[in-house]
């Protein structure tokens, strides 16, 4: 894991190059106040005050220079100077005006690379100084959690199966003194029949499992974090086309988010009794694969007519949510790369959040806005509940017609959550299809910082 602490340091007045981060609306006034050589450099670089314009500003000597960046990001944005974190020479920097604040996160993340399969070019650290040293620790934690999500999702399915997810949770538990248990393979058949049904077609060394971590004082409020851990999704017998299968290593993105969030909770020692549940499977194809038309029993007791083997994530989540509810938590959060319908509705950057509690929904939206990690609330629309009706079982897993796919998936999950428990479901993409500063193409934490904001507000 990248040592993010090396990229941030308290400002004690030590030598550092300046970064001028100027908003387009203030660019003309700023330029008018600069010396002639600065104005000459700005003109030579054709900087006209548009967002993204940049230039090296000369000083008295060859090594005495500063950086200009024209940026229209808000001062509260983590990405305000993120484009510089990976592009400047190694060395120490400070903002010429004001404190970096939230921008420390983007600066640090810009220097993280996924290097499991390809070595990164060696370079020294770019250190950003801050007069708010108390913010460094929290920034480093968020950077570590974000990088963990990215690295887990970017890892190929050959190296990130159910067993590797279990190893990740086990290592996290060992680090924080938490207890970790796991039910695997055929032992799932009685207690967690849908996790077993979805994962039983995989090879023995990639057997399905329910991974659980518990931490904290039992006297504190109990919360449950549930993450979808489909380590690869072929679609099962309703097989995906090759284009749809291409990115299915990321179908454990919900698990990656919840593992990272659990790490944040334990590192900050929130006053909670934490219960992390990761149903981990590979949705494979073999003679033992579950079939369209099969009626599956659930841990809850409801029966499900399987109308689509490619709607498997909600099946494994249902058993995990049922187990979470048995602990009588006051809050359940689940994250899942659940539906393409959510992407059609809101695109790749904006995960929908569903909640059965108005205060919890409001907290998620507020925290997402504050952290520049936005979500959009979609409804648990009771009028669509009939779409889950089955002629032979208590419900189907995927309605015909394709209407409101993200909503009906959330309604399916709602049937396994007690009405008395506050619950939120985030349908995250966990992937960035195009790179942005400090946000490379690939695995991405979408909704993680928002969820952390919710938990900090409630239990910090």
UniProtKB/TrEMBL annotation:
Keywords of this entry: Aminopeptidase, Hydrolase, Manganese, Protease
InterPro entries recorded for this chain? Leucine_aapep/pepB, Macro_dom-like, Peptidase_M17_C, Peptidase_M17_N_1
Provide the E.C. number(s) assigned to this enzyme: 3.4.11.23
Give GO terms: molecular function aspect only: manganese ion binding; metalloaminopeptidase activity
Its cellular-component GO annotations read:
cytoplasm
GO terms in the biological process aspect are: proteolysis
The Cytosol aminopeptidase domain is annotated at 308-315
Question: Per the similarity annotation, which family is this?
Answer: Belongs to the peptidase M17 family.
Q: Could you tell me what this protein is called?
A: Peptidase B
Species? Sphingomonas dokdonensis
């Amino acid at each position: 894991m990248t040592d993010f602490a090396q990229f941030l340091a308290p400002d004690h007045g030590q030598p550092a190059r300046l970064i001028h981060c100027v908003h387009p609306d203030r660019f003309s006034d700023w330029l008018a106040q600069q010396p002639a050589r600065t104005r000459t450099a700005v003109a030579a670089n054709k900087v006209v005050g548009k967002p993204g314009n940049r230039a090296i500003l000369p000083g008295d000597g060859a090594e005495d220079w500063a950086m200009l960046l024209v940026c229209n990001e808000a001062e509260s944005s983590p990405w305000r100077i993120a484009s510089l974190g990976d592009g400047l020479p190694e060395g120490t920097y400070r903002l010429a005006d004001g404190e970096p604040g939230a921008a420390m996160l983007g600066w640090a993340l810009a220097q993280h690379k996924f290097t499991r399969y390809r070595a990164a070019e060696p370079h020294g650290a770019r250190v950003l100084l801050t007069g708010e040293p108390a913010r460094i620790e929290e920034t480093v934690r968020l950077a570590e959690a974000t990088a963990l999500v990215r690295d887990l999702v970017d890892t190929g399915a050959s190296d990130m199966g159910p067993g590797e997810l279990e190893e990740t949770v086990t290592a996290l538990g060992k680090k924080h003194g938490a207890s970790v248990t796991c039910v695997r393979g055929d032992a799932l058949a009685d207690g967690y029949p849908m996790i077993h049904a979805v994962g039983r077609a995989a090879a023995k060394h990639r057997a399905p499992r329910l991974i659980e971590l518990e931490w904290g004082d039992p006297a504190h409020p109990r919360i449950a974090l549930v993450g979808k851990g489909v380590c690869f999704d072929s679609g099962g017998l309703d097989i995906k086309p090759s284009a749809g299968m291409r990115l299915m290593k990321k179908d454990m993105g919900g698990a990656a988010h919840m593992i990272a969030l659990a790490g944040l909770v334990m590192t900050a020692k929130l006053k909670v009794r934490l219960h992390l549940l990761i149903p981990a499977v590979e949705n494979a194809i073999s003679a033992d694969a579950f079939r369209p038309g099969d009626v599956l029993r659930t841990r809850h007791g409801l029966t499900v007519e399987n109308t689509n083997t490619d709607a498997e994530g909600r099946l494994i989540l249902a058993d995990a949510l049922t187990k979470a509810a048995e602990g009588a938590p006051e809050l359940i959060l689940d994250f899942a790369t659940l539906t393409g319908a959510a992407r059609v509705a809101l695109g790749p950057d904006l995960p929908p959040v569903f909640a059965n509690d108005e205060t919890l929904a409001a907290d998620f939206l507020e925290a997402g806005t504050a952290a520049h990690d936005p979500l959009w609330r979609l409804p648990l629309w009771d009028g669509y509940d009939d779409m889950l009706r089955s002629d032979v079982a208590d419900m189907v897993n995927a309605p015909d017609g394709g209407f409101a796919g993200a909503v009906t998936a959330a309604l399916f999950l709602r049937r396994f959550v007690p009405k008395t428990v506050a619950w939120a479901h985030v349908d995250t993409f966990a992937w960035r299809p195009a790179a942005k500063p400090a946000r490379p193409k690939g695995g991405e934490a979408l909704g993680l910082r928002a969820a952390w904001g919710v938990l900090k507000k409630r239990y910090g």
